Amino acid sequence: MGGADAGAGAFYDAALHKRETLMGKSGPSALIKNFRVFRIALFACIGGVLYGYNQGMFSGILAMPAFERHMGEYVTDSTKKGWLTAILELGAWIGTLLSGFIAEVLSRKYSVLVASAVFMLGVVIQATAITGVGHDAILAGRFITGMGVGSLAMIIPIYNSEVAPPEVRGALVATQQLAICFGIMISFWIDYGTNFIGGTSAETQSDAAWLTPICLQLAPAVILFVGMIFMPFSPRWLVHHGREEEARQVLSSLRGLSPDHELVELEFLEIKAQSLFEKRSVAELFPNLREQTAWNIFKLQFVSIKKLFQTRAMFKRVVVATVTMFFQQWSGINAVLYYAPSIFKQLGLDDTSTSLLATGVVGIVMFIATIPAVLWIDRVGRKPVLTVGAIGMATCHIIIAVIVAKNIDQWESHKAAGWAAVCMVWLFVIHFGYSWGPCAWIIVAEIWPLSTRPYGVALGASSNWMNNFIVGQVTPDMLEGITYGTYILFGILTYMGAAFVWFLVPETKRLTLEEMDIIFGSEGTAAADFERMAEINNEIGLSRILRAESSNTTGTPYETLPEKGNASDHSERIQAV
Fold it and tell me: How far apart are the first and last CA of the chain?
């Protein structure tokens, strides 16, 4: 293995061993020892519940007769129905683009407050649709709500990862994904329950049937807003903005240890090293933006993203991140989440209550199917899971297409065929839950060098929301215009996604950042990053703390970093992995 990687690996092994000695290893016991952090992260995951709730809630409302009375052609006309649904994703796309800037300027804590306030404003505007404003209120409200949802979906995982110690960070990020799926699940069942308010017929159903699911969002949003006032700032943000003593106090409180405890000192110095690394990387790449003014921070995210397109090696990463998110959305998952009752009606479940019941099952199976990915993704690898999941989803689409093509005008006499198609939708959601739901985000997050990771992830998230918006917009027209051809299109694209992952996306399981450089053709980028980090570690005293630990645990002093690693040594390791 190349010297740079060995040295860097020795350093991080030493840091890990030191933390394990002081705090214990990862796993359930680590969550118990860090229960204060776990409580804070669980509370912050209310943002994930709101995100998931919005993903699923509107599909049931669209199927309610009382809602159609107020919306008119915005429910009956497929194109306008698409706009009514997808405008949330357009708002979320804008919220995602702005969230990095807001989180850096205002802090993670205050940006959650801002995003929650924007979210609540959007919900209140949607509720005014009952007064006769109708579709205009829903359009404006969902756009504003989307801005809040998009911001929360980006900021909450950042906040959780920065308040959590390394031994529980993975579990807390996984908790966010489960919170999203939980939000989707409860939204479907709330729709099912409120559909009976006043009866299920167009003449008797109460407006409360659709107004209640919309207004219920205010309760967790208010709880999140009020609770975040009492939550700590991110220690990483405090250090990055020169508030080091406050960061020590926050770390001490989060860990339940004294400010001068060895573990608090170790974690503080690691955070400080990462902060200095980011500042010096910016100073080297964009010297005119080195001052931390609000305007420079705003410009930095855009010039950094632009730079990702300027070298062949980085552009390969851009393709992997954006195209992976393209195929995630064009698998058709959000077509199902946004229009499940309409899809089930097309499959022969004419009764609104029955179609909403079938939609509720979608939420349950998706939530359950996500759990295995959280537990085993690091053992199985990304490529096999994504490929098998894509083949499974695509096959379900093709089977549904065949069933619909044969029975589209005769569901009354072929009810078993309709239920078979419904079961294929449920199986499709299961395949998505364990594969492309969590794994696509893992790929997007881990393929970037340290110095470009925030901007690369933002680019991937931007691709996700924009394709999400397009799918939400065109699905009603496709279901009405090409009927079973919708499933053929999603199926073909998802088979293409399987081929893309298998032949063009490298396996990233257990690879170091420098090994990522080799498979993407940018050898030296991570080595240069490690050299800069080693210099900072020496400068702030982190090296002295870990020097003895490094020698004892690996036999390799991490300070011995050559200018570049040995590519052939790394290639052998990559082949082995």
Answer: 13
- How far is the C-alpha of 348 from the C-alpha of 353, rounded, in Å? 13
The answer to whether 386 touches 436, Cβ cutoff 8 Å, is yes
Using only C-alpha atoms, the chain has a radius of gyration, in whole angstroms, of: 25
Find all residues with CB under 8 Å of 232, minimum gap 6, and list them.
Answer: 40, 109, 163, 250, 253, 254
- From first to last of the 577 residues of the chain, give the pLDDT tens digit: 444 444 555 555 565 566 556 555 555 555 566 667 777 777 878 888 888 898 888 888 988 998 988 888 888 888 888 898 889 999 999 998 888 888 888 888 999 999 999 999 999 999 988 887 778 899 999 999 999 998 888 888 778 777 877 656 556 666 777 788 889 889 989 999 999 998 888 788 899 999 999 999 999 999 999 999 988 998 888 988 889 899 999 888 888 888 888 878 888 888 888 788 878 888 888 888 888 888 888 888 888 888 888 888 889 999 999 999 999 999 999 888 888 888 888 888 877 778 888 888 888 998 898 887 766 766 777 889 999 999 999 999 999 999 999 988 888 888 888 899 999 999 999 999 889 988 888 788 778 775 677 778 888 888 988 999 999 999 999 988 898 999 999 999 999 999 999 999 888 776 655 566 667 766 556 667 777 777 887 877 777 776 655 555 445 444 443 334 444 444 444 344 4
Say which residues have a Cβ less than 8 Å from residue 422's Cβ, sequence separation at least 6: 344, 347, 349, 358
Identify whether the C-beta of residue 432 lies closer than 8 Å to the C-beta of residue 333: yes
Show Cβ contacts of residue 190 under 8 Å, excluding neighbours closer than 6 positions.
57, 60, 212, 213, 216
251, 233 Cβ separation under 8 angstroms: no
Helix spans in 482-541 (H): 485-504, 513-520, 525-540
Report the distance separating Cα 507 and Cα 40, nearest Å. Answer: 33
- Cα 391 to Cα 491: distance, rounded to the nearest angstrom: 9
Q: What does the buried/exposed string (b/e) look like for 251-263 if buried means 16 or more CB atoms within 10 Å of the residue's CB?
A: bbebbebeeeeeb
CA 248 to chain centre: 29
Alpha-carbon distance 393 to 572, whole Å? 34
Cβ-count burial 512-546 (b if 16+ within 10 Å, e if not): bbbbbbbbbebbbbbbbbbbbbbbbbeeeebbebb
pTM for this entry: 0.81
Q: Is residue 4 within 8 Å of residue 527, measured between CB atoms?
A: yes
